[in-house]
Design brief:
The protein is an all-alpha fold and 436 residues long. It has helices at 8-40, 44-72, 75-91, 98-104, 108-145, 151-173, 181-205, 219-224, 229-234, 236-255, 259-266, 272-297, 299-319, 323-351, 357-383, 404-430; strands spanning 389-391, 397-399. The chain has a single domain, classed as Growth Hormone, Chain: A (Up-down Bundle), CATH 1.20.1250. It has a two-stranded antiparallel ribbon with strand order 1-2. Helix 3 runs antiparallel to helix 7 (181-205).
């Protein structure tokens, strides 16, 4: 395969759209949990339900819109339009406030329940636009644009963005008191407007590769394409990678929805941003270059160190609560998480059939979002079922996450090795050039 050097416009579009999308997802995946926890006293079960509902919405959306974008052959239209509508939907959360809901439902418990329900419903609406733009079409565009080479490098940048986004959000949120509703109103408006602006900017930045599929002109056929038994048989390795990616995601989602609450409430790290920022910066730098290891040395030599780092981080976070060791554990966990995302993502793109990237984005989201988003938080909620509780000044009761979520995540990560063994065997049997 002849490798084509990417221009500055491609890299700029990759960085801007990936980072902005991940900032919006960080606000949803990490801070919506904090939002309904602090503003509406949500339980672990409610948080698990919200994550699961969002995962289902993301999956259905990505399957349909990904296939539709293959049929239309214009990723840019979906990406830019989706980002604009995504930003508008984020702004709408500024209207979900306890004082507004309380005027209609005088009972504090009723108002809180309604607030949680509204957040979950609007989260699904927001996810529809976000998944259309980012999960389905931006990721398909990235696969199309790197068909001529450099996927490891591009995926390294793409995979580091969640951590960079966490750093940006942590730093940006430092000036806000998250116990005040006014802070959340400002946050949603700022993030929402930023996403809209990037959507408009994309009109001038993004170029559409030639992606229109000549096969499966029926949109319905495009939607179900990746679920056909014949397609599974033709792409066995790809589907085992999907399974491994799902196990990887389950491990992450067991603890991730409760991570910030764990730092702030359980460990009482009021300044956890200052503690976490160096870990995030270091992990981001490592991840930015880690994709090149995949390009040079293949999947096996790049995925094993990532998974070992992730599991080592879990062990430290489970065993220790001191600031120094929590920092080291968090650094290893974050580095393993993002490096793993990079190599799994690059391998998926390499095994995705050309000109069918949109059709397979639905399967990618099933493995990356749906299965982990339903199973992971449910395991976490079950682990925290009998967790310690605290009573707030207003008499409401909230749960306190404990370190057992990292033990459960470690067990889930151990299962990934079984899937990796199968992948290595299949790649060796195929004589894959990806495995050097």
């Amino acid at each position: 395969m002849t490798k084509t050097k990417k221009g500055a416009r491609f890299w700029l579009a990759l960085v801007i759209f990936s980072l902005t999308g991940q900032i919006a997802w960080v606000v949803e995946n990490m801070y919506f949990n904090v939002f309904i926890y602090k503003m509406f006293n949500a339980s672990a079960e409610a948080i698990s339900l919200m994550v699961a509902a969002s995962a289902v919405s993301a999956t259905v959306t990505t399957i349909i819109i990904g296939a539709l974008s293959d049929k239309v052959g214009k990723r840019k239209l979906f990406i830019c339009g989706g980002y604009i509508l995504w930003g508008i939907s984020i702004c709408s959360f500024a209207l979900i406030r306890m004082d507004v809901i309380g005027a209609l439902f005088p009972s504090a418990a009723s108002a809180a329940a309604v607030g949680v329900s509204l957040v979950i419903i609007m989260d699904c609406v927001m996810t529809f636009f976000g998944s259309s733009a980012n999960d389905a079409c931006f990721n398909a565009w990235l696969t199309d644009s790197t068909a001529s080479g450099g996927r490891g490098a591009a995926e390294g940048i793409n995979a580091m963005m969640p951590l960079v986004a966490i750093l940006a959000v942590f730093g940006g949120f430092m000036g806000f008191d998250l116990d005040k509703r006014e802070s959340w109103t400002a946050i949603f408006l700022i993030i929402g407007v930023a996403v809209v602006v990037i959507g408009v900017l994309g009109i001038f930045l993004i170029s559409d590769p030639a992606t229109k599929s000549e096969e499966n002109k029926s949109c319905f056929k495009n939607i179900i394409y990746g679920f056909r038994p014949s397609v599974v048989c033709q792409n066995k390795t790809l589907y085992v990678v999907f399974a491994a990616f799902a196990l990887f995601g389950i491990s992450i989602q067991i603890f991730m929805p409760y991570l910030i609450i764990y730092y702030e409430v359980s460990l009482k790290m009021e300044n956890y941003v200052f503690i976490m920022a160096p870990a995030i910066i270091i992990a981001s730098i490592v991840t930015a270059f880690y994709g090149r290891i995949y390009d040079k040395h293949g999947f096996k030599k790049s995925v094993i160190p990532a998974l070992l780092a992730l599991m080592a981080g879990y062990i430290l976070l489970y065993l220790f609560k001191g600031t120094a060791l929590v920092f080291v554990g968090s650094l290893l966990m974050m580095t393993g998480y993002l490096a793993g995302m990079a190599v799994f993502g690059a391998l998926l793109r390499d095994y995705t059939p050309q000109k069918k990237a949109g059709m397979f984005q639905g399967l990618r989201i099933v493995s990356q979002v749906l299965i982990p988003g339903i199973i992971g938080p449910a395991i976490g909620a079950q682990v925290l079922k009998n967790a310690e509780t605290i009573v707030g000044s207003d008499g409401t009761v909230s749960f306190v996450p404990n370190q057992n979520i990292f033990l459960a995540a470690l067990v889930a990560a151990a299962v990934i090795w079984i899937a990796l063994f199968v992948i290595f065997r299949l790649m060796k049997k195929e004589g894959s050039q990806i495995e050097k």
